[in-house]
Amino acid sequence: MALVQDTGLVLRIRKFAESDLIVTLFTDKWGKRAAIAKQARRLNSRMGGVFDLLNQVEVVFYEKVGLDLLSQGSLIQGFPRLKSNLETVSIALSSGRLLNRLLPCCQPERQVYALFTLFLEVLESGDVPMDQLQTSFTMKALTLLGHRPHLSSCLKCGATTDSFSFVAHRGGVFCPKCSQGRGIPVSCGLLLSLESLLRFSLPRAGVVHLSSKDIQLTNEILTLYANFISP
Ligand SMILES: [Zn+2]
């Protein structure tokens, strides 16, 4: 049984037995882990309150088959400002749920960990429009995890045109001729904006203009696509 120290972000918590917690952590060096925090729900527990959703924590755990065993946990940052606003907290939670679905178990994804940490820090700062920030985060996370959608030309014939259709189960866009009525219509302009979101860092996501209609449509296609990748 190896004893391991790392930092992590809390993706999910479940009550277990009388006073335990099962915590899904996205750790920096050890990837996504499920761990049990014994007696963490007791009033006098040293780990009480440490494992709230989206907290960044420092942990020491015993690596075990199935469930790791948490031995120590302390809070690094709890993102209080983000959590005091219903809109930002729901954006952060839905991004955390997406990561929980997409991340393989026990496999380091250090760039994605750094990206999610930065995403929460920028949301906490309130400096960047939150919808654009979320779209940018989702595009970058999909790309880093090897699921970048194909948005630059028709997947079948390679044509570039003014309008495309996004077909979720094919992971990209098709021209009107090749789409044959399938998929969700998207403009070339929106696809260019999404591609440029990938070029700017998260703190600069606000420089790419996206209307509220664009944001809504993007959320729709990325949700369909994520559901296809990880049902
Ligand atoms: Zn085509």
Write up what this structure looks like.
With 231 residues, the protein is α+β, with helices and mostly antiparallel strands. It has two domains: 2-77, Nucleic acid-binding proteins (OB fold (Dihydrolipoamide Acetyltransferase, E2P)); 80-229, de novo design (two linked rop proteins) (Up-down Bundle), CATH 1.20.1440. Helices cover 37% and strands 26% of the residues. It contains seven helices and eight strands. The protein has helices spanning 80-83, 86-102, 110-125, 130-144, 176-179, 188-199, 212-229, and strands at residues 2-16, 20-27, 31-37, 56-63, 68-77, 163-167, 172-174, 184-187. The strands form two sheets. The chain has a five-stranded mixed beta barrel. A three-stranded antiparallel sheet has the order 7-6-8. A hairpin with a 4-residue loop joins strand 4 and strand 5 (68-77). Residues 154, 156-157, 159, 174-175, 177-178 line the site of zinc ion.
